[in-house]
Amino acid sequence: MWTQRTLSLCILLGFLTAKGLAQNCPVANGYFADSQQCDAYVECKDGVPEKQLCPDGLLFNDRLTGYPRYPCSYPQEVECGSRTRLQPAQSSGDCPHQYGLFRAGNPDQCGSYINCVAGTASISNCPEGLAFNDQTARCDWPDEVPSCNAASFVRFQCPGVRVEADLGHPRFSDPADCRKFYVCVEGTKPRALSCGVGSVFNPEIGVCDEPENVPQCASYYPADVLSAVRRLKSFDNSV
């Protein structure tokens, strides 16, 4: 049986506890980083703090503002600083974590990546000629991705010696495709590019050109396709 004195003490203790918890919230509503764990945070709602945990693979992003905006981001977007602790990884199939973007394949095949959502993996591909950068979770030039073997990936080895950028980057045609060509950044870093539909690469001048100006590529496009492309370009230019 509760006595009046016991009940009063419980009410007082509850009030002091709630007051103490409220004092842990700098503002009534907001998210705040855990002092040690990068994927943990404190959510303050109406002045009451509650510890929360990001899904496995995501980290608390203390740069995001605007409660109640979702506060967890990909690791590439977060600076943990001294908050080095993390929850144990929950791998599933091809997913090293439940959530995240991860490079797929080996260093010679770095144009695809795995998108993990709730432990389910789906494969996505970067635009042609680009490689997935697991340090930024974006598609970049392969020579800018440390984990990618750029020459093997684009299947072209730059033959030249390193040159200064202001002298221009050497360009080379693709022997198998008249539209495609390679740019050797600083003479040594290969990047694969492609001319727009209706044009081909002219190795004599190093730019995309009309097919009739490149003898070996004059018949690259069927006549009806080339005619349709030129009509469309003419229409666009007239608008």
Write up this protein:
By secondary structure, the protein is an alpha+beta fold. The chain folds into three domains: 25-87, Antimicrobial Protein, Tachycitin, Chain A (Beta Complex), CATH 2.170.140; 100-149, Antimicrobial Protein, Tachycitin, Chain A; 156-238, Beta Complex (Antimicrobial Protein, Tachycitin, Chain A). It is 17% helix and 28% strand. The protein contains three helices and 15 strands. A hairpin with a 4-residue loop joins strand 14 and strand 15 (207-209). The N and C termini lie far apart (89 Å). It holds the Pfam family CBM_14. Residues 1-22 form the signal peptide.
H/E element sequence? HEEEEEEEEEEHEEEEEH
Distinct helical segment count? 3
Radius of gyration based on Cα positions: 29 Å
Q: Characterize the biggest β-sheet.
A: 3 strands, antiparallel
Structural class assignment: alpha+beta
Helix content: 10-25%
Quick synopsis:
GO terms for molecular function: chitin binding. The chain is α+β, with helices and mostly antiparallel strands.
List keywords for this structure.
28% strand; Antimicrobial Protein, Tachycitin, Chain A; three-stranded antiparallel β-sheet; 239 residues; disordered N terminus; 17% helix; alpha+beta; 3 domains
Layout of SSEs?
Elements: H1 4-23, E1 30-33, E2 40-45, E3 48-53, E4 59-60, E5 72-73, E6 100-103, E7 112-117, E8 120-125, E9 131-133, E10 138-140, H2 150-154, E11 171-174, E12 177-185, E13 189-194, E14 200-202, E15 207-209, H3 223-238
Antiparallel strand pairs: 1-2, 2-3, 4-5, 6-7, 7-8, 9-10, 11-12, 12-13, 14-15
